[in-house]
Amino acid sequence: MEESRSYEVNFFKPSTPFLKENLRAITIGLVIWFVATYGFQFLLKIVETPTPEAVYTAYQQIEPKLADGSATAEEKVAAANTYLALLGKSGALLKNDALKTAFTSTVYDLLPGDGKDTLMAAATKAATDSKVDVGFINSALGITENPAMMAVVPYALIAVTPDKLAMTDPALKPVMDKFFIHNQSFLTDTIVFGFPFHYLYTALILLTLFVLICLVYCFVIDGLMKKYEMEKSFE
Fold first, then answer.
1. Nearest to 99 by CA among 116, 86, 118, 114
2. pTM of the entire structure?
3. Cβ neighbours of residue 148 under 8 Å, at least 6 residues apart?
């Protein structure tokens, strides 16, 4: 009876010189890919610095004045536009009553007597009809040339009684910190070919590196097969 041959191949326990060199090539490729991918993410975390947007920095100086009623009309416009910009960042924020109340209250304080009544009527109507006329609000906030901001206004209003008006709210700080403070560094601020470097690296460079690793591996395996004369067995 002929002796049977074992064709079992264990990746972690290579039994021939060819398999050992093959494992070495695979390991080197995986290490390069792992370091290039996850090492860059660790580097981003190490060098990043929480940086608030300019609009948030300005708001932080205005907020105390809104609370004590000493804010000027220009500062109220800036605050209202900050609230509006925040509301436009996420659809979920359009359900934040504290934020919508702060926006509506700030605009209310900006408008003259008859404008206040018009605003309250618009806020009530906006609850069921997003096509409510808010042109007077756009004019008051100076955003008539900004379609993106104007599109958010109908959704930013909330029907609230005068005794519930409040231009600020402590509950807004965590939300504003989340959406207005970004982790930045030279890796995110450097622009290459019109893209931030970290975006270009993860979207293009890593993809290119992966393809190159695969190509190099193919050449290495081809060389190993010639070295150990394995090609003859497939002829």
1. 86
2. 0.75
3. 88
- Return the closest-CA partner of residue 159 out of 104, 85, 95: 104
Contacts of 206 (CB under 8 A, 6+ apart): 36, 37, 40
Residue that has been written with the tokens 């190509």 in this structure: 215
Q: What is the mean pLDDT of each run of 10 residues along the chain (235 residues)?
A: 56 81 93 96 95 95 94 96 95 93 95 90 86 92 95 93 91 95 94 94 95 95 86 54
Single out the residue of 66, 159, 156, 161 nearest to residue 106, CA to CA. Answer: 66
**Residue pointed to by tokens 């070495």:** 24
d(CA 233, CA 231): 5
Predicted pLDDT of residue 34: 96
Q: Is 14 exposed, middle or buried (0-12, 13-18, 19+ CB in 10 A)?
A: middle
Sketch the domain layout of the chain as residue ranges. 17-48+187-234, 51-182
120-178 pLDDT, tens digit each:
999 999 888 878 899 999 999 999 999 999 999 999 999 988 889 999 999 999 999 99
User: Among the residues of 129-171, which ranges form H helices?
Assistant: 135-141, 147-156
Give, for 182, the enclosing helix (H) or strand (E). Answer: strand 181-184
The residue length of the chain stands at 235
pLDDT at 1 (0 to 100):
45
The CA-atom distances, in angstroms, between 35 and each of 29, 43, 141, 182 are 10, 11, 49, 25
Q: What is the dihedral of CA 79, 80, 84, 87, to 10 degrees?
A: 70
